[in-house]
Specification:
Layout: E1 10-14, H1 18-24, H2 29-50, E2 54-61, H3 69-84, E3 95-99, H4 107-120, E4 127-134, H5 136-152, H6 163-167, E5 180-183, E6 202-205, H7 215-227
Parallel strand pairs: 1-2, 1-5, 2-4, 3-4, 5-6
The protein binds farnesyl diphosphate.
Length: 235
């Protein structure tokens, strides 16, 4: 990467196109997810090498439970395999945070997620957010309920509610907002991803399907981001 390029602090990635990748090859959809999970691992490593502060991958939405049971089961077993290997990331010193409601997962996955968050919480390297059973509207409702409880029990006054307090009640507490959201596979939707956090984020859409996504594609996205003129509402 050219040394004049500014490396973003936080990138959000919607891993899309696994199903189409498999279909093109006459393979079951879960083969697309399997390849997608390999790409997830490689791109995570690359984000570490680039020196990002945070990266967020959208791996499973609250709506994805509606998929056929074999597909959901296939994704769950992939997640288990990968989360068991998550401790390989030790050398990268990643703090791993799960965005979403963990209580919907089976005990094995739930325990793994709690253990990984606990074991990695004091790490000082890149924050690796994995959105699982995540939906941004649900996250916003959850933050609102937390804040309402604080008002009800007298911990804060209504006047204390501001944007910072709201951000601190989201799963991404303490992290910079994403500089850009990347969606491969040609789709141009946000799909209930980080709605609060993306107020000033750039959007970068690419035609490549996620299982074909490479480090070079991420370089190109960062180069494209560098060409954008972010004014944050100013001139
Ligand atoms: C979207 O593609 C992808 C998913 C809903 C699942 C993503 C899951 C993984 C990459 C595997 C597990 C992740 C980790 C963190 C190890 P799609 O199925 O909607 O593709 P399509 O639009 O082509 O059908």
């Amino acid at each position: 990467m050219d040394k004049n390029i500014t490396i973003p602090k936080h990138i959000g990635i919607i891993m899309d196109g696994n199903g189409r990748w498999a279909k093109k090859r006459m393979l079951p959809r879960n083969m697309g997810h399997k390849k997608g999970a390999e790409v997830f691992q490689d791109i995570t490593r690359y984000c570490n090498e680039l020196g990002l502060e945070s990266v967020t991958f959208y791996a499973f939405s609250t709506e994805n439970w509606k998929r056929p049971v074999e597909e959901v089961n296939g994704i769950m077993s992939l997640l288990k395999d990968y989360l068991k290997k998550a401790f390989d990331y030790q050398k990268e010193n990643n703090k791993i945070v799960f965005l979403g409601d963990k209580s919907a997962f089976d005990k094995e996955l739930y325990d793994l997620m709690i253990e990984i968050e606990e074991e990695t919480k004091d790490r000082t390297g890149m924050v690796l957010n994995i959105a699982l059973n995540y939906g941004s509207r649900g996250e916003i409702v959850r933050a609102t309920k937390n804040i309402a409880k604080m008002v009800k029990n007298g911990a804060i006054d209504i006047e204390d509610i501001d944007e910072n307090l709201f951000s601190d009640n989201l799963y991404t507490k303490g992290q910079p907002d994403p500089d850009f959201i990347l969606r491969p596979s040609g789709e141009k939707r946000i799909s209930n991803f980080l709605l609060w956090q993306i107020a000033y984020s750039e959007f970068i859409y690419m035609d490549v399907l996620w299982p074909d996504f490479t480090r070079k594609d991420l370089d190109n996205a960062i180069i494209e981001f560098n060409k954008r003129n972010r004014r944050f509402g100013g001139v």
